[in-house]
Amino acid sequence: MSREILIVGSGFMGTSMARALKNCDISCLETHQAYLATLENLSIYKNIFSDVSDVEGKFDLIIVCTRQKDVLEHISYFSTKFPESLITDISSSKNFLQEADLPSNFVSSHPICGSHKVGPEDAEPDLFKGKEVIIIDSAHHENLVKLESFWSSLEAKTTIMNFSEHDKNYALLSHFPHLFSFIYREILDEEDIDYKKFSGDSLKEILRLSESNKHLWSEIFLDNKDNLEYIKEKLKKKLL
Questions:
Q1: Cβ partners under 8 Å of residue 24, min gap 6
Q2: DSSP string of 172-200, one letter each residue
Q3: Which pLDDT does position 138 carry in this prediction?
Q4: Domain of 193?
Q5: pLDDT for 116
Q6: How would you write 30-78 as a 3-class SS string?
Q7: Fewer CB atoms inside 10 Å of the end CB: C or N, the chain?
Q8: Distance CA 112, CA 128 (A)
């Protein structure tokens, strides 16, 4: 398993990962000023960098846990600065990566264990335990094996898919349900009905997904729009 690890973006997911790792030297890059005091108090990091230009060291694995809009920039920067490091991300959709010129030391991941929580203060050390992690197939078999070993160390299960298979599957399993929840809440807000008072648990469960970070999910919806459009058209035919 990787011993020297850099986590880029230590919000809910990144910090949960750091808290779960054992027998590793972990550093993080976190530019969100509101998170830095919390991370210092947690005492889980060997180094905390607040500026990308300050990151130094030798890392076996670099995990990009930022918003999707920033992922490619980080992959490009860190693959150049640390060419011997294996780099992965945790993005929920992969179309933007499929269309990019990716470095040979990058292999993409997607842990299926997100939450509406966003900050390090809510991190859960058992978040990945027993969960599925999708690893995107790579021509570099050695890197795939290393990444599978890393996720196994967090007691996660791994499955390998290609980019297109991943985005089609998770449009159905995750992205469209979230999109529906956001839209349905908007519809309810526009109507003259106190749905918070009169609804039962079933509606609350549907709307729970809309408590997620809307800006983050907007990036996912836009990136996987073709698969979402396909589901929308199929749903229209089923409803008519």
A1: 1, 2, 3, 4, 5
A2: IIIIHHHHHHHHHHHHHHHSS--HHHH--
A3: 85
A4: 165-239
A5: 81
A6: CCCHHHHHHHHHHCCCCEEECCHHHCCCCCCEEEECCCHHHHHHHHHHH
A7: C
A8: 8
N- to C-terminal Cα separation, the chain: 53
CA 58 to CA 44: how far, in whole Å?
Answer: 18
Exposure of 158 in the CB half-sphere (CA atoms within 13 A): 18
Q: Where a domain ends, among 161, 188, 212?
A: 161
pLDDT value of position 156? 98
Alpha helices (H) along 84-224: 95-98, 141-153, 163-170, 176-190, 195-198, 201-208, 214-223
Task: Tell me which amino acid residue 3 is.
Answer: R
The domain tally of the chain equals 2
- Ranges of residues in the chain whose predicted pLDDT is under 50: none
Domain end call among 161, 181, 213:
161
- Give phi and psi for 99, each to the nearest 5: -85, -5
pLDDT at 2: 65
Whole-number Å distance between alpha carbons of 97 and 93: 9
Both 68 and 138 in one domain: the answer is: yes
